[in-house]
Specification:
Residues 106-194 form the DUF4046 domain. The chain is mainly alpha-helical. The protein has helices at residues 5-14, 28-46, 51-57, 60-65, 69-72, 87-93, 102-115, 128-146, 155-159, 162-171, 175-180, 185-192, 199-202. Helix 2 packs across helix 6, helix 3 (51-57) packs antiparallel against helix 6 (87-93) and helix 7 crosses helix 8.
Length: 205
């Protein structure tokens, strides 16, 4: 029964047992519930934290001290998670906790890239339809916030010259969009803003 997992976890914490049985999480029907029970016990009974407090304070050291690496392997990290991030363990334990929207997560990643906290975007971050949506969020942030522009009809003038377009994208760490997702800056802009896919708008640039 899933409820017995806590007793086994207590033995691991006390040193009586080194790890869970290889068969402990074999049954997919109960795996999530078991992992949640272990996480909740560690957070609420061992650390005496609220879920919200755990979301703010849980660290990689805590995960090691609490032997939570033994269940971490059963939780798929979100694409945004850095190698040392553990916040998603709390999200897994308490699915009802408020979470960032998709746009907020994208901007969090992009701002960390801009700040140098991340050396680059997560692998395959801009692949698929969702990747295109992320690309648009990043590009909009660059255009409106970082460049201080307000009119999309300025884009042909700004991105009409390929060399200048690449320079701008490189400066704002978004050259990867053209490298991996689009054929050219022109292709990128007209894909993101179909209304600009008019040769008349680009003819002077």
């Amino acid at each position: 029964m899933p409820s017995k997992i806590v007793e086994r976890y207590k033995r691991i914490l006390s040193g009586e047992q080194k790890r869970f049985s290889p068969y402990e999480f074999e049954d997919a029907q109960y795996r999530k519930q078991k992992v949640q029970l272990v996480l909740r016990y560690a957070i609420e009974k061992v650390k005496n934290w609220t879920p919200e407090q755990a979301r703010r304070e849980l660290s990689l050291k805590d995960v090691k001290d609490l032997k939570l690496h033994l269940v971490r392997e059963y939780i798929e990290p979100p694409i945004e998670a850095k190698p040392n991030d553990v916040y998603y363990l709390v999200d897994y334990a308490y699915p009802y906790l408020p979470k960032l929207s998709e746009e907020e997560r994208v901007l969090w990643v992009y701002k960390e890239v801009l700040a140098g906290i991340r050396r680059h975007f997560p692998p395959l971050y801009f692949q698929s339809v969702k990747g295109e949506e992320r690309a648009k969020v990043c590009f909009d942030y660059m255009f409106y916030e970082l460049m201080g522009e307000s009119d999309i009809y300025a884009l042909p003038k700004i991105f009409g010259k390929t060399e200048r377009a690449y320079s701008i994208l490189k400066k704002h760490r978004l050259k990867i969009l053209v490298d991996t997702l689009y054929f050219s800056p022109f292709d990128m802009v007209t894909e993101m803003y179909p209304i600009l896919n008019d040769p008349v708008l680009w003819k002077d640039y």
